[in-house]
Write a structure and sequence with these properties.
Elements (H helix, E strand, L loop, with lengths): L16 E7 L2 E2 L5 E2 L2 E7 L3 E4 L2 E4 H26 L2 H13 L1 E7 L10 E14 L2 E2 L3 E15 L14 E3 L6 E11 H12 L3 E2 L7 E13 L2 E12 L6 E15 L4 E9 L11 H5 L2 H11 L2 E2 L1 H19 L5 E2 L2 E13 L3 E12 L3 E5 L2
Parallel strand pairs: 8-11
Antiparallel strand pairs: 1-4, 2-3, 5-6, 7-8, 8-10, 9-10, 10-22, 12-21, 13-14, 14-15, 15-16, 16-17, 17-18, 19-22, 20-21
């Protein structure tokens, strides 16, 4: 090799090889995606002849390429681990989900005149499962646990964004169940009864010597029962009829007929003190009491099927409207059935529990592999 010393020469060779990078992405509780990257460099053997001596270039070049690839993978790993793109997308959707959505006056077509209602959605918890990978996409499943209720007025809920994700195992996908409390103030219940009975006379066939015409109905809570206060005009039938107004209080328990999906009153009894309210009509007026009790037991019903049908469509539209927003976020939600399942009350509000069941295709952030 001595004759090459101090000499100038120019020789070139083509190098061929591959760099393969693999990733096992995982979502962390801090809303960051850890790509868990690894790289491997493969260089084909190349012999470079110099003055009749073949030098193995691949073995010389590979350590340099390994270092370059390691540096690039490390930089990409750091950038992805610090990138808040998932958190930013979730925050944008969280804000959209935290709201009260107008449901409209359900049941107007049926003449029920149910009140204008609002669906209040208050997200409370964010849940995520580890990513799934197919040939084209990395799919991150993110769920939201929310409190929902239906209220008679618009309320702006307060929904702090969660600092951490709750990580769960992959579970069954494709179904969604929503329990929605429907809060109806007693003022609205009174209005519904008032619309049904104001101006009506009982018994309707006029078969009694004493007739009671309802002028006003008012409902209030009283312990575990409801107190229905009726302002009625009671009079004897006949040519020389005598009539007077009286306030009659009737006890009743609200009950939900799940088969017929109606609200009715059971255990209806006349309040003992109300008997004195008949005043001058005395015992004759008391004959009207059984008719009022029977009327409330048989006819004081509120048909909630129109509301359930309307709420089913609007809840699905509201959830679907949320889910369809944003880059990389896809969802298809349909509510198959909404049925009223329970009833309760406090001092101001009648609460009806509705159970909605439906299908959700999947809620995902889909990250293109590029």
């Amino acid at each position: 090799m001595g004759h090459l010393a101090g000499g100038a020469f120019n020789q070139h060779a083509d190098l061929h090889g591959t760099v393969v990078t693999t990733s096992r992405p995982a979502i962390a509780a801090n809303w960051r995606l850890a790509p868990n990257l690894a790289g491997q460099v493969n260089v084909a053997d190349v012999a470079l002849p110099i003055a009749g001596v073949k030098l193995n270039v691949a073995s010389a070049v590979k350590p340099a390429l390994d270092g370059m690839v390691h540096d690039q993978i490390g930089a990409l790993e750091t950038r992805l681990r610090n990138d808040p793109f998932i958190e930013n997308a979730a925050r944008a959707q969280w804000i959209k989900l935290c709201r009260a959505i107008p449901l409209g006056a359900a049941g107007q077509a049926s003449g029920q005149g149910l009140p204008n209602l609002w669906l209040e959605i208050k997200p409370m918890r964010a849940i995520a499962a580890q990513p799934q990978i197919d040939g084209n996409t990395l799919t991150l499943l993110v769920g939201v646990q929310a409190q929902t209720r239906i209220v008679p007025r618009e309320i702006k809920p307060d929904c702090p964004f969660p600092r951490e994700l709750d990580l769960v195992a992959q579970g069954d996908q494709g179904r969604v169940s929503i329990a929605v409390p429907i809060d109806v103030p007693f003022g609205e219940v009174s209005r519904l009864l008032q619309a049904q009975f104001a101006g009506k006379t009982f018994p309707e066939d006029g078969s009694s010597a004493v007739l009671a015409t309802i002028k006003q109905a008012k409902v209030a809570a009283s312990g575990d029962r409801l107190l229905i206060e009726l302002l009625v005009t009671v009079k004897k039938s006949g040519v020389f009829s005598l009539g007077a107004d009286a306030t009659v209080c009737v006890w009743g328990r609200p009950a939900l007929d799940q088969d017929r999906q109606i609200l009715r009153f059971i255990d209806v009894t006349l309040d003992v003190e109300s008997r004195a309210a008949f005043g001058l009509l005395g015992m004759a007026a008391e004959a009207a009491a059984p008719y009022l009790q029977k009327m409330l037991a048989d006819k004081a019903v509120i048909d909630l099927k129109p509301f359930a049908a309307d709420a089913k469509n609007r809840i699905a539209a509201a959830v679907g409207d949320f889910a369809a927003q944003g880059n990389g976020l896809r969802a298809s939600v349909s509510i198959d059935d909404l049925r009223l399942a329970g009833i309760a009350h406090d001092s101001n509000t009648l609460r009806i529990i509705a159970n909605a069941n439906g299908a959700v295709s999947v809620v995902v952030w889909s990250l293109a592999m590029q």
